[in-house]
Amino acid sequence: MAAFPDTETDRGGDASTSMLVSWLLRVAKQYWWIPVLACAVATTAGYFYTKRQPRIYQASARIEYNPAPASPLGRSVEDVANPVSNYWLAVRYFETQNLILTSRGLLERVARRLGLEQDSRFSAEGTDSELAPIERAALSLQRKITVQPIENTQLVEIRATDTDPQVAADIANAVCDEYLAKTVEDHMSATVDAIDWLSEQLDDVRARLTESEQALHNFKKENAIVSVSMEDRQNLVASDMTRFGDELATVRARRVTLEARVEQLRRLTNPKALAAFLGGEDGDLGRIVTELSSLEAKRGRLETRFGPNHPTLLELSEDIDSTSAELRRAHESLVAAHEAQLAQVYTMEKGFRAALAEANERGLDLNRKSMEFERLHRTQVNNENLYQMLLKRSTETDLTRLVNFSHVRIVDRALRPQWHILPRLPVNLAVFFAIGLLFGVGLALLLGRLDHTLRTAEELKDLGVSVIGVTPRALAEHSGLIALPQTRRSRRRAERSPNEPASVAARTRRDLLVHHHAGAAAAEAIRSLRTALLFASVDRPLRTLVVTSPKPGEGKTTLAINLAVAFAQSAKKVLLVDADLRRPRIHQTFGVDNSVGLTNLIAGVGQIDDALLETDIPSLSLLTSGPLPPTPSEMLHAPGFSQTLTALKSRFDLIIFDTPPVVPVTDASVLAAEMDGTLLVVRSKVSTRDALLSALSSLGRVRARLLGVALNEAESPAARYGKDYGYGYGYGYGESEEHSSTGAGASLVAPKKGQDRRRFG
């Protein structure tokens, strides 16, 4: 039993690769003629368009940019108008020149040279009617000239186009000549301007040089720098400052030493310590200290022997006192001598300090004068150097004015072209072909996108539904006349209306194809569908079957009738019920009256035996719709329908209900919810995806048991069905007596021998 696919899931499946490939193949198969026709039309249009275009000729001339042209004056003489002094300036200069080659100013010179302002093709008034003829001619030339640098070289190609090949060559050569003349003129103009400027600057610098020389002379005169140079004066002052500084440092060191010595001499009162400090420096003082020490030692020895009052000791004590007094006088004299020396050192230090300060003052004054001297001297030197440079530059520039040379030279002049470059027929045909192809493919894809109809079983499978059967396009135009299966009502109707309309007869032949052409491919497909339905309901016996479709016109009634015939041929007792209470049609196919039918039984008016019709097809009975009710859906919900269905199921093995479409009305959904199975019929090239998904959704909401989807009137020929499903339609299947006969009482005109094989095999 088939599942009811979710709408969003199906939309996601449309984006899968398999669906995309299938869709592209279908679009290619259906609309292949659109790209072919578009390419043919576009190529033809391109051919005639190209033939109508004027022929354009192109002439080319080559010039060379030379960053380092020959200099007759030598490399030491620099050209003030040279714009390419280094690599990067050369690159920018040449790029600028490429734009100058197509500038309006240069092209006006070219137009005057060739007299193009008088040529109506170049100076005709158009959108630029306010411009002068020469300006309009220059603008016309801008559209005809292109400049193309040749990669990895210093060459530039100037290309001119025109409908006249000679005019194209003349324009290219005139551009080269005028550009060369312009570069020389620009160089001369720049040189003359440079000479004028240098002359003005030279006069100004000469005056400043004279002024700076006079100021330097006056400074030397005022400061007497003529006899002794400023540098010698600086050296003398520096020598005095060094000498005075050294003397001052020596005196300061001596002063510090004397101060320390005097301080120590003043503190030393012990004769031995004083003698040790002097270290024999003062002989008299050392002698006295030695003598005093000897006397004191002698007194110490005598005191031990004679006692303190001995006359010898007394005499010796007087000598010691006398020697001590002499020692004090010598110490004081020594301190006084050192103090005198210290005073003298103080005086010398003061003098050297004053001399050094005076030398520093003279040095600072000399530095100030030296700075002023250096400033004046530097100004004079700078003015002199600037004057010399300007003088040299002015002289060199005056020399370069006499030499006419340029950074450009003509390498190849343009020749008269022999072949046109435009229009190019192969290129235009290719472009128009590509445009036609793109347009055709786009239109085909657009039509394919707008076409939502279903065509093949693969498309149904891509939507996630179970395809239970595929029936080919029924060939209703079988030769011979087909007699309808007769009932008592149909016989009476035939007697009343002997001339049946041709459209009704053709539809009848199609609806009863399985009965009249059992060996046809379409009939075999119906029987395959019958087998598939039986296998789909193995777990639950199929007693009631609803045949419906998403929308009208999809062949559900035809399929229901043929399917009922196929089941009847399999020895099942089958009842075909026309449950379409809105537009019933089965009674027309069988040519019976529809005055009594299903609605009578539901309403309880009439008996089942009166409503049932026996056909000439064995085991097949018919129940028409009966009078049409105002509310069909409510009638199908009535209790009388369930009672009628129960009574009918007791009489027949299988009841097939032909119902209205699912999407417009709810009748089919009401019946499908109560039946054992539902068969949904879609028609190739008619049914749409949205209608199918809507029908599946409606059946899913009522939990109908969907056995599958049958694709009706598929595009594939009968041979493909035989190949795909394993049946050899028309090869080995003859019309057996069982299939070709209509049963007792039926009057059939047998088709000619081999007719079905040719049509269906």
Protein architecture, described:
The longest helix has 90 residues, at 311-400. The protein is elongated and about 200 Å long. The protein starts with 6 loop residues before the first helix and ends with a helix. Among the domains are: 230-400; 457-736, 3-Layer(aba) Sandwich (Rossmann fold), CATH 3.40.50.300. The protein is of the alpha/beta class and 761 residues long. The protein has 29 helices and 13 strands. Residues 1-15, 475-502 and 717-761 have low confidence and may be disordered.
Percentage of residues in DSSP E strands: 5-15%
The CATH superfamily name of one domain is P-loop containing nucleotide triphosphate hydrolases
Taking all Cα atoms into account, the compactness measure Rg is 67 Å
Instruction: Give the overall average pLDDT.
Output: 79
How many angstroms does the end-to-end distance come to? 32 Å
Give the overall shape, derived from the CA principal axes: elongated
Uncertain runs: 1-15, 475-502, 717-761
CATH first level of one domain:
Alpha Beta
Number of helices: 29
For the biggest sheet, the summary is: 8 strands, mixed
Spatially, the strands of the biggest sheet line up as: 6-13-12-7-11-8-10-9
Q: Give the proportion of residues in helices.
A: 55-70%
From the helix content, strand content and strand pairing, which structural class follows?
alpha/beta
Instruction: Give the beta-strand count.
Output: 13
What is the third-level CATH name, the topology of one domain?
A: Rossmann fold
Provide the CATH architecture of one domain.
3-Layer(aba) Sandwich
